[in-house]
Amino acid sequence: MVDGARDPDPADSPGGLTDRDLGILSFERRWFTHAGAKEQAIRSEFGLSSARYYQLLGVLIDSPLALAHDPMLVKRLQRMRAARAQARERRTVRAPEHRTSPAP
Question: Where does this protein have compositionally biased stretches of type Basic and acidic residues (predicted)?
Fold first, then answer.
């Protein structure tokens, strides 16, 4: 499937997860144990840009159907996402408060 293609309807597949959803979960399960260029593997396996893949993955790991299908994997992916969000939040540079001096 390519970026512009219509997303499959989960209601069309048994169990509610599409073949692509199942493929993404399988890919994430396998990828955890391998090293390499993940973005290139995403493009060759799914025909998606890495940005689109991660959008789909984010929605997928919030799905109760994905959680029911592979709870350990989905919980791990959710924890990893939360840890990355926390790290981003800590790295965010906050602008110093502007103090105005009283006019003479």
Answer: 86-104
